[in-house]
Specification:
Order of helices and strands: HEEEEHEHEHHEEH
Largest sheet: 5 strands, mixed
Number of strands: 8
Helix content: 25-40%
Distance between the termini: 23 Å
Strand content: 15-25%
Number of helices: 6
Structural class: alpha/beta
Strand order of the largest sheet: 5-4-6-3-7
Amino acid sequence: GEAVAEGLCDLSFVQLVEEVSNERQCGERENGDGSFFEPPEGVRATAVSRPGNRLVLGVPREIAGGTEASLASFRHEAFFLLAHRSCEPLKETFVAACRRRGFRPAVRMLPCARPEEFYLMDHGDGVHMLSEDDLAIDASFARRLEERMALVPLADSDGLRLRWHALRRAFDPPDDSAFARFLKLLAEPGGLP
């Protein structure tokens, strides 16, 4: 979001962990989309992935457990995230969700040139975070992951989702511009494939 706020680009995308539960603890401020994410001043955020996009945990098979998992059941595991500036909001919203569930996660930020490399390299024992949509977009990628780890969806009762958001500068482009038409697509439910 900082690049958008600084005028270096007009649009960027981030993934955020969102709450879908109505239960809140005192003092927390939700931003309407359940993410507790505050974009920088002068930046607007729009959710662009489907609301029901469940969080999927990639875990070593020996700790996978059942067909669904609760986030708290992995409280003693390391969570792996890509070490990139664009992943900071994901880390912040994930840590906040864990804290609301009574624990502070051990998050290891790992540098990799490409996201595929991040998920397909052996980083040791730990938990990767993906979404159902991430896995559905590329079937061969999902198969390669399943060869290396168990993919366990987070239980609906945990009340968390992983969603992509578009961050854009808070200005209104001319109605006839390609950028304005793209923003209109982003705002429509199901507007993007």
